[in-house]
Write a structure and sequence with these properties.
heterodimer; A: alpha+beta; four-stranded antiparallel β-sheet; 5 helices; about 50% helix; rod-shaped; B: alpha+beta; Immunoglobulin-like; 3 domains; 9 helices; about 30% helix; about 25% strand; elongated
Chain lengths: ~160, ~450
């Protein structure tokens, strides 16, 4: 009978050790918080910005920029227009570029997500400054170039979009 | 001794099997997750590279081609002026292809050095594609290689382009490698380059004047509004004209008609510093060819009220038109506003080449005479609409403007060859910096002088 107690105890000990071992194995994998949504925002944002032309957007703010002469080439995509603003950069052009990006990201990226745009390594737009505390940061880049007139090219610039949560 | 299979043994064995099975299951799941995540990463990378290839094909290369072509055309117009010789039609494609691809002639000599203008520097196709390649490598670690040696370029104008565009076709091979996938592309692109804004090779060649092609956005109809004709001449605007030569024809010195693509501009006597009235139609291609009035049939020329005057130095000095333009601009429909031009005037001289003999070797553009070089001779080609035999004297004056020094000023030189006049009487060592000027004066048998200046900077 005492051997029974020993063996039973032995079995429980063994199970306990195995359970602890498996817990250690599973918790060894670093925790990866879900990246799906920021990834979707990054790719969506860049995808829309690279494929949507200014002339295809029916928006009063953008129509205002066109009528005021800020946007001259309506066949530019959004990202090309950002590149053109960056080429012409000065204080008022920079402000217009920031306002345009702010206006567009309000629609595309929900509150609670931070967004930053970089052109050639320089930050041109930032929403939310909690980057240091975020647990997820996704970024993607694309080269962009355009023509100002028949004799002048701007770019290629590397445009980077970062989204974090 | 036989081993008895006890209940405890079965129990422990079952437990062990269960544990091993659980461990196997958990590791298998993990490796599936890893494989899936890895495939997703690779899929993203291939998609990214594919999007880049699409962008290159549909946006980047057409834009780079448009800008490089525009600049190459401008550079060729200045080259025609610097060389004093238009491009042979059979050579146009080859020269254009070389200049647009690398900014150099096929000999390797940069066109910008020949013209003295920085037009193709950093803007040839090779330069542009190099920058694009660097951006792709830096941003995504994607390698793109553009094969310039197998590039084919064709330039032409047609009914499709019309007079206000030039079609440039490019065929090129390139490859893109993202590490896990590779694209090999052999593709053709076709772009239409606007003529608007380019300097007219005709004015550069005959007068050394930089006159940009700006099409009139108004109707030139004297009878409706005579000020529009004044504006047309004053601004040197352009109109589409099937009887006139196209832009590419002007590059090759062909002043015949181009039904699909001809253009014309008015002669502006004030801009061209006319010091005499000329017996010819004051439309660009007409003045320098014999195709318009008076022409071989000795047709009449017409002057216009409110426009033509006979005061030297004033706007529209001696302005005249042939019967065809007289009708085209609506002057024939106006009342009491036309009169036949009197004759007694003559054709016009023009200076189409100014060269220096530098360092006893080659005849080169004067801008090649730089610090410590020797100018051993000068030459110029003087032409006349009535025939080069009408040129009587050609003078050369070499000056350094900044130091106000005249190195030589001769009024007579030697005719050697068709319209080519030479002066090799004095060698000059370039020891002054600053702006230099070589002024050529051609005097015809009627005493009318035509002058043209070549200026350049010695740093």
């Amino acid at each position: 009978m005492s051997r029974g107690y020993i063996f039973t105890l032995d079995a429980f000990l063994a199970i306990g050790i195995i359970i602890v071992g498996m817990i250690i194995i599973y918790t060894y994998n670093p925790f990866s918080p879900p990246t799906n949504q920021p990834q979707i925002y990054v790719h969506n944002t860049l995808g829309i910005y690279t494929s949507t032309k200014i002339q295809d957007i029916n928006d009063p703010y953008i129509n205002g920029l066109i009528s005021n002469g800020w946007i001259k080439n309506r066949k530019n995509t959004i990202i090309e227009q950002i590149g053109e603003f960056y080429y012409k950069r000065n204080s008022s052009v920079n402000a217009t570029m920031r306002n345009l990006l702010a206006h567009l990201t309000t629609t595309l990226v929900q509150e609670g997500y931070g967004v930053a745009f970089y052109v050639d390594g320089r930050m041109v737009f930032l929403r939310n400054s909690t980057k240091g505390k975020s647990s997820v940061l996704i970024s993607t880049k694309t080269p962009v170039l355009g023509i100002l007139n028949a004799s002048t090219i701007w770019g290629p610039y590397l445009v980077e979009v970062r989204v974090w949560q | 001794m036989a081993i008895r299979l006890g209940k405890r043994g079965i129990f422990f064995t079952a437990i062990s099997l269960l544990i091993v099975g659980l461990m196997l299951l958990s590791f298998m799941t993990g490796s599936t997750n890893i494989a899936t995540m890895r495939m997703e990463v690779e899929q993203n990378r291939v998609d990214l590279a594919n999007d880049l290839v699409i962008n290159i094909n549909e946006a980047f290369i057409p834009r780079l081609l448009t800008v490089s072509a525009y600049r190459a055309l401008d550079a060729l117009a200045f080259y025609v002026s610097a060389r004093g010789e238009t491009i042979k039609p059979a050579e146009l494609n080859g020269i254009f292809a070389s200049v647009i691809s690398t900014g150099n002639f096929s000999s390797g000599h940069p066109i910008d050095q020949e013209t003295g203008y920085l037009i193709m520097e950093n803007y040839s196709l090779a330069d542009n594609l190099k920058r694009l390649k660097a951006a792709m490598s830096e941003g995504h670690n994607i390698e793109a290689n553009f094969n310039y040696s197998k590039t084919k370029v064709i330039v032409y104008q047609s009914n499709t382009s019309g007079p206000d565009n030039i079609i440039v076709n490019l065929t090129m091979e390139y490859s893109v490698d993202c590490g896990i996938a590779q694209w090999n592309i052999n593709k053709s692109w076709s772009v239409q380059v606007p003529v608007e804004g380019l300097y007219d090779p005709l004015w550069l060649y005959y007068e050394g004047k930089k006159i940009p092609i700006n099409f009139a956005e108004y109707q030139v109809n004297y009878s409706k509004n005579w000020t529009d004709l004044r504006k047309f001449i004053d601004n040197i605007n352009y109109l589409k004209e099937p009887d006139g030569p196209s832009y590419l024809m002007r590059l090759t010195g062909n002043l015949n008609s181009s039904k699909c693509c001809g253009i014309e501009s008015p002669v502006n006597p004030k801009t061209l510093n006319f010091n005499s009235e000329y017996w010819g139609t004051y439309i660009d291609y007409c003045l320098y060819s014999n195709r318009c009035a008076p022409g071989p049939k000795n047709l009449s020329l017409y002057e216009m009220d409110n426009i033509t005057n006979h005061t030297l130095g004033k706007k529209f000095y001696g302005y005249k038109l042939d019967p065809r333009h007289y009708v085209k601009f609506g002057i024939a429909n106006s009342t009491g506003s036309d009169r036949h031009a009197g004759s007694g005037q003559h054709g016009k001289g023009s200076i189409t080449l100014i060269n220096c003999k530098i360092n006893e070797t080659n005849w080169l553009s004067s801008n090649q005479a730089q610090w410590h070089s020797s100018i051993n001779g000068t030459r110029a080609r003087c032409q006349h609409t009535e025939g080069n035999g009408k040129i009587a004297h050609v003078g050369f004056k070499l000056r350094n403007i900044d130091h106000d020094v005249t190195l030589f000023d001769v009024s007579d030189s030697t005719l050697n060859g068709d319209g080519m006049w030479y002066y090799e009487g004095k060698s000059v060592h370039v020891t002054y910096n600053g702006e230099w000027s070589l002024k050529v004066t051609c005097e015809d048998i009627y005493g009318v002088k035509t002058t043209r200046n070549a200026t350049w900077l010695v740093p």
